[in-house]
Write a structure and sequence with these properties.
224 residues, alpha/beta, five-stranded mixed sheet, three-stranded mixed sheet, 8 strands
Length: 224
């Protein structure tokens, strides 16, 4: 399952089955101060990001809603109102309403994390932590750099479709698109070792440019 903060023609998916993903709403910064020369955007992508409005606080919990999902959603509201959470490494949370449990995706180890874990335990929520190597702010900045260089990747054989900045199961950016030209698969769908190596080389190059791990994959995500 993936948490999608995506820049493309399509809207992000926030819900999959019984697992609900809540995205963070705190600021943006550069990914380890890495910079890249932007190119013209390819015609099949747009520079619009569908993100939560970072100028607004999370929705307050409904006191009449006693469901497990409501309890899990209330964690972010509680965090928003704690002074020690003004600066924190929160990235996202993966909620499982059936078991009243939450997996917090977090960068670093700060007072807010420890306070949040204590709060979750106090209201009967089983909270665990999935530590990430870069922050939400860094991955979103890296996402922007990738889209600014879409034409460069297209000339190398990868037509960019979407970038998922946050994934529940990968510590980095999932970059989706279509392999063409020297990176295309054979007509029967097989991929030669040479092509696979070339694809990996492009993935490594993008990762080096943005300073974050990259998972380059073929696909064109459908609408939510």
């Amino acid at each position: 399952m993936r948490i999608r903060i995506r820049t493309s023609r399509r809207h992000p998916l926030a819900v999959l089955g019984t697992v609900i993903v809540t995205l963070a709403t705190w600021g943006l910064s550069a990914c380890r101060a890495v910079t890249a020369s932007p190119g013209e955007l390819s015609p099949f992508v747009t520079p619009t990001q569908w993100l939560e409005d970072t100028s607004l606080p999370p929705d307050p919990p409904d006191p009449l809603d006693t469901s497990n999902q409501s309890k899990l959603d209330a964690i972010r509201w509680w965090m928003y109102n704690q002074p020690e959470c003004a600066a924190n490494g929160y990235i996202a949370q993966v909620n499982d309403a059936d078991t009243l449990s939450v997996r917090l995706l977090w960068y670093g180890d700060d007072p807010c994390l420890q306070a949040t874990l204590a709060y979750a335990a106090s209201i009967g929520i089983n909270a665990t932590v999935d530590y990430r190597s870069v922050s939400l702010q860094q991955t979103l900045a890296a996402q922007s750099i990738i889209f600014a260089n879409a034409n460069t990747y297209a000339s190398q054989g990868f037509q960019l479709r979407t970038v998922e900045a946050i994934s529940a199961d990968f510590d980095g950016l999932v970059v989706m698109g279509l392999f063409t030209g020297p990176l295309a698969a054979n007509p029967d769908g097989t991929v030669t070792p040479a092509v696979q190596s070339a694809r990996q080389a492009l993935s490594d190059s993008i990762a080096a440019t943005v300073g974050c791990q990259i998972q380059l994959t073929e696909g064109d995500a459908g609408p939510s």
